[in-house]
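Record type: ASSEMBLY
Status: queued
Input:
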Amino acid sequence: MDEIIEEPGAGRRSRGEGRGAAARRASRSGGGSGPAMPYITRKIQPYNVLDEEGLQLIEHNADIVLEEIGIEFRDDAEALELWKNAGADVKGQRVHFPKGLCRELLKTAPSEFTWHARNPERSVRIGGNATVFAPVYGPPFVRDLDGNRRYATIEDFRNFVKLAYMAPSMHSSGGTVCEPVDVPVNKRHLDMVYTHIKYSDKPFMGSVTAPERAEDSIAMAKLVFGDDFVENNCVMLNLINANSPMVFDETMLGASKVYARHGQASVVSPFILSGAMSPVTVAGTLTQILAEVLAGASFTQLIRPGAPVLFGTFAASISMQSGAPTFGTPEPALVSYGAAQLARRMGLPFRTGGSLCASKVPDAQAAHESANTLNMTLLAGANFVLHAAGWLEGGLAACYEKFMIDQDQLGMMQKMAQGVDLSESGQAMDAIREVGPGAHYLGCAHTQANFQSAFYRSALADNNSFEQWEIEGRKRVEERANTLCRSWLDSYEAPPLDPAIDEALLAFIAGRKDSMPDAFT
Amino acid sequence: MDEIIEEPGAGRRSRGEGRGAAARRASRSGGGSGPAMPYITRKIQPYNVLDEEGLQLIEHNADIVLEEIGIEFRDDAEALELWKNAGADVKGQRVHFPKGLCRELLKTAPSEFTWHARNPERSVRIGGNATVFAPVYGPPFVRDLDGNRRYATIEDFRNFVKLAYMAPSMHSSGGTVCEPVDVPVNKRHLDMVYTHIKYSDKPFMGSVTAPERAEDSIAMAKLVFGDDFVENNCVMLNLINANSPMVFDETMLGASKVYARHGQASVVSPFILSGAMSPVTVAGTLTQILAEVLAGASFTQLIRPGAPVLFGTFAASISMQSGAPTFGTPEPALVSYGAAQLARRMGLPFRTGGSLCASKVPDAQAAHESANTLNMTLLAGANFVLHAAGWLEGGLAACYEKFMIDQDQLGMMQKMAQGVDLSESGQAMDAIREVGPGAHYLGCAHTQANFQSAFYRSALADNNSFEQWEIEGRKRVEERANTLCRSWLDSYEAPPLDPAIDEALLAFIAGRKDSMPDAFT
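Status: finished
Output:
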């Protein structure tokens, strides 16, 4: 797809005001605890766990899987017909790929592209040295600010969109930040997409639970960005999970086809709990992931050459004792590091990681597991990071307090990604000369000149003395996060939205809702 | 120093039994939740944040610091005399080093050596691809199992030595695991060294708070290992902090001289809170660290060429708002990664990191900060890791619960360090063929054959369903850690110690204690 650098919605009339002013205001209002950060441009190198020989071995094995075992496309006839025409060997729903076919098809996929926000200042790059964080995706439950665990509602959904909008280190609004189960299942995508547009101006994701819901997402995006812009630029990233092992189901293929047809991005992600959906080994899991991604990602290019597509990897393991999913453990980290290397060799943007954990509360287990995952995510060089904040309980619950704690950690990753400043000021030889042996740097000129930006400043960490901490009520970090979260939600201000667009969106939603009966399953 | 591979204590008489049998029993009894792990031999690569140009720049700047600014050696005349004779320019206590002098002296320092334990099966390698974990060092307080924060006692000291002995992922017994403030300050080192010998058979550290306490540590080690063995092998690692910026004080130099003279290892560690003891920048801090280590480490070679010495780095920052130390933030991680690179180029073993945090309780803040530090520690390729478990509250308190949580994480690092198994079993192609699209791997032959060792198994993480977790009492990880800690301490069994050695140690201690009045300051 061509990268048409065009003002979103340009040419649409009845705008209440110019986009530039709105953007500037939105930029100011977005920072919950500081100015909004742009997406990350990594200046540090990715970390590698496989050498050339290992990479070639896994690529060779994945080719064998694709050719000899094959991948199932559980779709209507269209997908299978497309594969037949492309030269694959199709037996029932099983597609066998001649060596090199998938890689050949993927040559048309962009290695980098822009994911456009309705506020152009919030648009982000996907690929290369860019890293973009997005909130947790998919939880049916929330752990709310009163410590209750309950089903999520559209109000929770709205709150997490607001928090993601306000979090300086969060670069996108995400997608299904939680499942608003109080809205009929066949209509909730309309409210979700609307909420992203209305309450945030960061880039958002589309619905993937049915082809018609993907079409609705596209239609709503067109009301915001304009028809031509959407058809020629990426305004939505869309999560297309493989049904591992080695299956793409009808729902995911249906959504992927819609998005690819309209030039929107698919994040093709094997969803792997090693030991259940893949072998118990890292190399075996990587082989299967690579085969699945090669098949699923190249499929988007059959639909529309040039459609953006990501190499996705959701990696966790199961407990071999209980079968329960585990997070933050070493083996999935090795999988993600390895998958990132395979993606770079393929020239596709890469998605993995986040702040994953199995814990039921935002305790030290949650933090250890999340930090193990998040440190890996940054160093692996992930380009798109779903579940970067708010994930609790194996993804079953979105947690307000954990969202706040996680977004603080994302800010640290952003600083880490800047690497070492080797400028003259960075070298600080003047400071070392000025201070000399036995003195201190607190008051020296270099410190005075740089103290504002010197170190990442956490809004949640308590670094005070024990005595001061006692005086302040012996609070744990989740209590401080709770307070900060309430204050953000209280002070939230929506970014401006052209009333005409708002009206058009509401009218579209009303029409679509009227056209179908409520469904809750 | 020659690596004399000699059985510790060989030739000493009056041993109650052969060392082999004792070692085997000790090995069995050591594992609190599983078999003891050997020290880590990393199969993964270290992570680099500086390129060749950056490294050369910092080395160049450090040479300027050494030559033009100089380092203060606040010692009696001996150190200054040694430097004069070596060709340095000494003005008062300030030593200026001609370019290349320190590096030339360091050519005699070993790049790898063995740190011997009284049980040879517990001896560890320091340097190269080896990583060795040690407990927290130095806290005057403990956070005990009843949740109280109080001054540490010799009983706490004993408990942490027991826990370090039982923790499968802990490779050494450490040093001042906490300050036993109920023992006179001038006698406490005797009880500390004795406790390490009596209650553990893992390698331990010596006292550095005065030259005569270092001599006592040596004397006690000789009662265990034999005179010749000690003089020719490393049986103690010893923490020699620089008094940053650019000062080595009399206490540290005194201890370092004693240990180097007896061929024992010095861990020369600039203790850096950036912004106070070093510039606010990463590159400036690295320059100062390198200069300090070059001076302090090469000094050990003036005392005894070949004495083992480590490039140490304790890196943290201060809050520029409050002046309080902060941990787990990005800037010190960059410092440690960079320092590791500088150490590798110098051919010295490297010490950094641990499980550092500022939090007052083992909450998510503690865990995030610790995990950020620990992940960096492993990937930086640290050879010796002090504070690997139990550190709380900026190092002011040793926490029982956090010790248990941390040691679980150390086990994860150990697994991570194994990297990706690319053997035929690792590739798992048979499993992928057997299972095929749409099935699962739970029962396949490959999974059955490998499930025991497939994934790191945490003894503390709760991966169960929310409902199961509720039934089990809604416990946070520190509650589970508390229970596990109590059960370890209840089931502790001391490793065997030759009664004759025990008697000799107790007699030595009694004699030394009788020779001086109690001092508490």
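Annotation: The mean pLDDT of chain A is 93.
Annotation: Chain A touches chain B through 126 residues (CB under 8 Å).
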